[in-house]
Amino acid sequence: MVYNIVNLQAATSTENLRALEEVKDFCTTDLGRGGKERWTYHMLPEAALDAELHRMSNATSSTFVDSVTFQPCAAYADLNQDRYSIEEWELPGGVWQFTAIYDGHCGHDTVNYVHKRLPSIVRTSLQALLQSVPTTSLKPEFVSEVLCTAVRHLDQSIRSDLLDFLPHDRLTQMNDAQLNQHILHRYSEWNTISTRCTQGSTVLLALSDPLKKNVWILNLGDSIAVLGNRSFSGKWSATIINSVHNCHNRSESQRIRREHPESEQACVYDNRVLGYLAPTRALGDTWLKVPSIYTRRAFAPHLQDWLPPHQVAQYASRILTPPYISDLPEVYHHSLDVSQHELLLILSSDGLQDLYDNNDIQLSDQEMADRWVGLVGRHIHSATDMGLQSNLALRLLRDAVGGDNTELVSRNLTLEMEDKWMDDITILVQRFR
């Protein structure tokens, strides 16, 4: 037997020193989980942190909104599923401002669909309202109804596409061969429909009128809106506008139980709907809104992208009296007085608050809101804030990922881990003055 021999020269002392220099700023962490497993991260100098955070979060500023959207894990399967909108609409009576956060789950298709369609639906409906009702007669509840109807119409369109393609009575009559043939014959269309039906998106949006006398907040899901108000004394106060639609909200879990027979103990299980989904209200997630035969016979292959077959069967067995996920949003109206008060609005996906919990900062919802508004309020007119630091949403994100703790911020930004170590985070800070 002939062996191939490879001769490697020993590294020189200079090369050894260079190698040590390259790794001297790398550290490891167990993320507080204990055990032997460790993950590597790169300690960044303070001077580089804001620039890196700005780059990774796509921080941008418009005339009235600062925004960031952040997911540091670069693995394809864990790419950021948050989307957002910042728009100004020239409508009868002046320019309306529309901002929204869409927090997708289980994929990108449904959240992309919502992101593309919802603003245009709201704008068209609002324009029709403004053309039919004189400005002097425009009641806040008229606008609230427009917003609610637009959201429900969009969800209905997802469900209608399914039922047009595969009516319930026809599905029950088909054998497996007939069903497979029906799907294969129009597979591209079915792939689009079924993907939207097995994914979902929450919605949190704000709409303000041209004179900034009114703001409407619509919520469907577990994002949060906080209104900041600066008094004449200069002190900022925070008001949480919306309730959060998840099973940790007792009123939501009780609502779901009231809507289903007492025998369905699993309709809320382990603080999730059917033991599966954290948000209790969302667009999409149609498989949790229609009879289980759709899941068992039609949706199973798409659900198996992230659920093993035995779990798909388990969840399908719990779908007895759908729907379990609601598409009914809550709409809140607030009267504004920008001539007397300085006001700001913070919209954030649920990942922002979750990150504080992950960093062992235990705050109540109100304490969290006070922290956010206080931080933004301190910097909203700061003459020393220039460049990157002038983005108020970036200020909040920096606080959440570690604040002045350079090591924690570095870890959250550079951790070398294949799975997500934090939820997607999107923040919009809107100024009304």
Compute the separation of the termini in Å: 83 Å
Arithmetic mean of pLDDT: 92
| CATH topology label of the domain at 41-165 and 199-245 and 281-289 and 325-431 | Phosphatase 2c, domain 1
Largest sheet: 6 strands, antiparallel
Q: Count every helix, treating DSSP H or I runs of 4 or more residues as helices.
A: 14
Helix content: 25-40%
Low-confidence stretches: none
Please state the structural category: alpha+beta
Rg from Cα? 25 Å
CATH H-level homologous superfamily name of the domain at 41-165 and 199-245 and 281-289 and 325-431: PPM-type phosphatase domain
Helix and strand run: HEEHEEEEHHHHHEEEEHEEEHHEEHHHHE
User: In what range is the share of β-strand residues?
Assistant: 15-25%
- CATH class descriptor name of the domain at 41-165 and 199-245 and 281-289 and 325-431: Alpha Beta
